[in-house]
Amino acid sequence: MTAELVRGQNHPLDRTRVEIRVAAGGPVVAGVTLGDEQGRLSGVEAVAHPGAPRRTGIEVPRQAAAEHRIAVDLDALPAAVHRVSVLLALPSGLGELTAFGAAAAPAVTVTGLDGTGIVRYTITGLGAESAVVAVELYRRQDAWKVRAVGQGYADGLPAMLRDQGLPQAAELAAEIEEAVGRGQARAVPAPAPMTAGRSERPGTGPAAAPAQDRPSPAPTTAADGPTPSGAEAVSGTGAASGSRPGSAAPSGPGPGVGAKSAAGSKAGDLPPTPADGGPIDYRHPGRRSTPAPSSPRPAGPPPSATGPTGPDGSPLPVAGDAAGWSMDERLYNQVWGMFEDLARSVAAYRSAADFAETRLEQELDRALADPRARLGTAGDAARATARDKHATLVTQARAALDRDLAQLTAESEVVEPALPPAFARWDNPVWQGYHVPLERPMALRLGDLHLPEVLDLRIPMLVRLPLERGLWIDSGPDSYGRGGPGPERDIGRRELPGALTDGAPDGAEARRLAMESAVAIAARLLAIHPAGEFAVQVIDPAGAAAPALAPLVESGALPAYPLPGAKGVAAVLEELTRRVELVQMAVRHRAADALPADLDTAEQLLIVHDFPHGFDDRALTRLRYLADEGPAVGVHLMLVADRAQSREHGPVLDPLWRSLLRLTPVPDAHLADPWVGHAWTYEPPLAPQGSQVVRQVLGRLAAARRAS
Predict the structure, then answer these.
(1) Do residues 695 and 525 touch, judged by C-beta distance below 8 A?
(2) What pLDDT band is residue 505 in, cutting at 50, 70 and 90?
(3) Which of 101, 207, 210 minimizes the C-alpha distance to 479?
(4) Do 125 and 133 form a contact (C-beta atoms < 8 A)?
(5) Is 694 helix (H, G, I), strand (E, B) or coil?
(6) 184-216 as b/e, with b when 16 or more CB fall inside 10 Å?
């Protein structure tokens, strides 16, 4: 099954002859660089490009195209080559595309020679960048891995080559452009969008990407200073992360990540501008229950309507109104469709409002340009007319948005009660009839997302399972209300509404809320897995997390309160490191039967409270190892930490922060969607105040565990 990666994640390669497939929203130039252990290039001969498409072990296409296939034979590479980086750049003179952010997000899939998918990475969150390092294949201990990079360059191909240490970057970039120009007539245009149902799982689920990083939604997470551009879709989280509905079948995190692709075009792509100059349809192409935003619904039921209709003939929303192999997958894809519809509808409204504001300024400037018209009735009339036009345009845009919101709200009202426990809020009645599942779920709800234009409509933030990136619950009180740092792109500081900023918690309260959020997520992960197939371990050097951990300890999900001090840190890290290494060896040599009898093969969630308190250099190295290698073999990381407390370690921890999806224990606008980049407010998945639902669910799980 194809694994879906988000920025920064890696995946082992089980073969050395692979094909790298690229799909973009317009003609792009594909190339490959062969770097040493530090990623530096020895010279122009280390670059395969349209002007020199063949290097030892590498062959790239000779022209710009919307789709590419790159052949790679890792065994044939020179011994000095340790990194194989796949580069994508926009050619000049081919169409009007000058930035990746103006087209559908490019996707890169690494496959075997027989077409079997290994990994897929959708490069979301790009803006003004015209060149990007998509993925890299790299050596690690005599084995090869693939890493999702997604680092964009606004200054184009020369800046990207220069960043890899090539002195002749400008000359080589010019040579590549010349070679592309010679093959311009053969360039392959982007395929036209086709209507498709929601049959493909989104790449990172309705988890938006951290807006400041641009991952989750989202959406990804945390790092100060320059970072690669892009955003993780709120999906999953994955988010973080994330890709849009319509990406190929992933196995990683999503609202989440994963799925079987449907025939036709990407479900998340925008339809082309109508040739007759009519309104642009911002609707998710696969939706069957909502009208196109900004367009009145025609009289009578639409020709494609197959479900129940209202008195006016409009289709009524139906839970599971999306394609998929199971009801859970249909609901998952439907949530993704709602997420994208809301993002695009609000984008259309904001665009119209911005246009009205710009037009008002222009007309007022014209009215005041003539000094003779500044005074008197003529000037007053011109200004009044301009303001009336502005008000009319804004009113029309809001009316179109309200129509879309009414449809989406109606759909949410039927979808939310139908969600399975893994997708449902803690106040959903489905938890009252909870039974321990017999199968693993496809996704997990990490919280809710909403936009300021419609505070009452919440979109579930789903991430695909198993988690392929760790989580960071931010316990720093100074980070709320300004969209803290994240791993993909910094789009500026954002202030929350006054109601949120006025109630920002102090240090002790922030730490308490952060740990409660971590326990709520851990309890949900335990509850949605079959008994005995998921376990939780905790590192709490100061012993301050005991009150929050009580539900886990009392139910037996956590055998005992964590051992405090450096001894407790070392014991847990040593045990999990041993598990990762043994399982890796068993997978590599196909010797699962040789694993020790005392090894717990259940998936593990490691919660680290007040990180990095109690960690020495050895412990930090082990934790970074678990974050990097653990997800592939079922060990997942959740940090509960204030990043400011780790400043003394300098940049050594920056890769760790960048690899995690940042969540907050209070509402905070720090995640971005993968389509238009709105800053979404994330709300944590806490149980209602005074509710005992978490303890009840854990109690039923404990009973099932004892009975098994």
Answers:
(1) no
(2) low
(3) 210
(4) no
(5) helix
(6) eeebeebeebeebbbbbbbbbbbbbbbbbbbbb
Mean pLDDT of 260-281: 39
CA separation for the pair 137, 563 (Å, rounded): 40
Report d(CA 492, CA 406) in Å as an integer.
31
Nearest to 193 by CA among 122, 262, 131: 262
Both structure tokens of 200: 């493909």
221: its two tokens: 């997470």
Instruction: Give CA–CA dist 271/496, Å, rounded.
Output: 33
Element (H, E) at 110: strand 107-112
Continuous segment of H or E residues that includes residue 10? strand 10-12
**Res. 427 pLDDT band, cuts 50 70 90:** very high
Among residues 127, 204, 210, the alpha carbon closest in space to that of 663 is found at 210
CA distance 592 to 21: 32
Say how many C-beta atoms besides its own lie within 10 A of residue 278's C-beta.
Answer: 10
DSSP-assigned beta bridge partners for residue 65: 28, 188
Q: Is the dihedral of CA 512, 518, 524, 527 positive or negative?
A: negative
What is the DSSP pairing of strand 235-236 with strand 209-210?
Answer: unpaired
Nearest C-alpha neighbor of 176 from the set 72, 60, 19, 57: 60
- Which amino acid does the sequence have at 91? P
Per-residue CA distances from 705 to 223, 437, 438, 606, 634 (Å): 40, 12, 12, 20, 20
**Candidate from 7-16, 362-371, 665-674, 690-699 with smallest mean pLDDT:** 362-371
Burial of 369 by CB count in 10 Å (0-12 exposed, 13-18 middle, 19+ buried)? Answer: exposed
Give Cβ neighbours of residue 707 (< 8 Å, ≥ 6 apart): none
pLDDT digits (tens, 9 = 90+) for 279-318: 444 444 444 444 333 333 333 334 344 456 656 666 788 8
SS3 category, 532: coil
Alpha carbons 413 and 423: distance in angstroms, whole number: 14
The C-alpha atoms of residue 289 and residue 495 are separated, in whole angstroms, by 35
Indicate if the alpha-carbon torsion angle 115, 116, 119, 120 is positive or negative: positive
Above 90 in pLDDT, residue 29? yes
Rounded to whole angstroms, the Cα distance separating 51 from 183 reads: 10
The angle subtended at Cα 510 by Cα 506 and Cα 512, nearest 5°, is 125
> pLDDT tens, 339-373?
999 999 999 999 899 998 988 888 888 777 777 66
Distance CA 438, CA 221 (A): 33
State yes or no: pLDDT of 537 exceeds 70: yes
Please give the radius of gyration of the chain, using alpha carbons only, rounded to the nearest integer: 26
Q: Hey, what are 608's tokens?
A: 């680290």
Q: Decide if 673 contacts 245 (C-beta within 8 A).
A: no
Least Cα distance to 9 among 136, 104, 111, 131 occurs for 136
DSSP label of 206: T
What is the 3-class SS of 354-367, one letter each residue? HHHHHHHHHHHHHH
Q: Is 590 exposed, middle or buried, given 0-12, 13-18 or 19+ CB atoms closer than 10 A?
A: exposed
CA distances, 263 to each of 41, 140, 168, 517 (Å): 40, 37, 44, 40
Query: Which has more pLDDT, 52 or 293?
Result: 52
**422, pLDDT greater than 70:** yes
Question: CA-to-CA distance for 308 and 290, rounded, in angstroms?
Answer: 13
CB 216 within 8 A of CB 671: yes
The answer to whether the CB of 136 falls within 8 A of the CB of 144 is no
DSSP category for residue 655 = H
Token couple for 95 = 């169409």
Residue type, 541: P
In angstroms, the CA 371 to CA 426 distance is 65
- Under a CB-based contact definition with an 8 Å cutoff, are residues 11 and 466 in contact? no
